[in-house]
Specification:
Layout: E1 27-31, H1 34-51, E2 55-60, E3 63-68
Antiparallel strand pairs: 1-3, 2-3
Length: 70
């Protein structure tokens, strides 16, 4: 399970990026450099296209946070 707030970044998935584990309103944080942020955004876009879900990514200190919004 992924966090519904900023206080916890624990996800139950063994996947590197747990898009599939996210429920509406959930998020996860990944520490990434600039190139990694761009790769993660593309992966979120591809997963969204395949599933019909929507994600928001936002740069935060030290990485990026991804939310499932639809």
């Amino acid at each position: 399970r992924c966090s519904r707030d900023w206080s916890s970044d624990v996800c139950s998935s063994d996947l590197k990026y747990p898009f599939r584990d996210l429920e509406l309103g959930d998020s996860f944080f990944v520490e990434l450099d600039e190139q990694g942020v761009n790769v993660l955004r593309v992966l979120a876009w591809r997963f969204a296209k395949a599933t019909g879900w929507k994600f928001v990514t936002k740069r935060v200190d030290g990485g990026v946070r991804v939310w499932r919004v639809d």
